[in-house]
Input
Amino acid sequence: MEFSDVIKNRISVRAYNGKEVSQENIQEILEMMQLAPSAGHKQAYRVRVVTDLEEIARVGKGAGQEDRFEGATAMIVFFVVPEDAGERFGERGRDLYCVQDATLACAYAQLGAASLGVSSLWVGSFDEADMMEMCGLPGEGGGLRPIAVTLLGYTDEKVERSARKDLKDLMV
Ligand SMILES: Cc1cc2nc3c(=O)[nH]c(=O)nc-3n(C[C@H](O)[C@H](O)[C@H](O)COP(=O)(O)O)c2cc1C
Output
């Protein structure tokens, strides 16, 4: 697939059909994710792959987005590791670079998924405390903080792209 087509094919899917995403595809998505750039090459993020449908549903419920999670068969949770970036970059690393690293990793994962014909949805709104508990990282969780989830799966629906601001309105 042409790279421009991958970008155009990546679209938020909120209606999944329950079809399983293969382990091979998940592995390939993770390997593409891993190639994302990061500040000082610190890769100040970690991920947890969840394929247990009950756990996916639990996060959906905590997020108040049950309907959107239903039928998704895999989920990647992205955590920031502020100290990985903070030890070199101080406050800017802890507050900003780790979030940018995780954000880029999540974007790469979504584009990687699109290149394989796997649909995805970025979910930013979820219950952080419940996510930590579910992942077996209660309390401070060793400094990890979950900041994003990518749902993975397939859809039977034709999803329309949401309209963008005009390019001129994105200029400052
Ligand atoms: C930081 C971030 C948080 C998001 N959180 C949610 C979310 O909680 N639920 C949801 O349905 N979509 C969420 N989205 C998806 C956006 O709504 C979506 O990307 C946007 O509407 C543009 O549509 P498109 O992805 O189809 O191009 C999030 C996207 C980003 C980047």
Notes: The radius of gyration is 16 Å. The beta strands are 45-50, 74-80, 119-123, 145-153. The first strand starts at residue 45 and ends at 50.
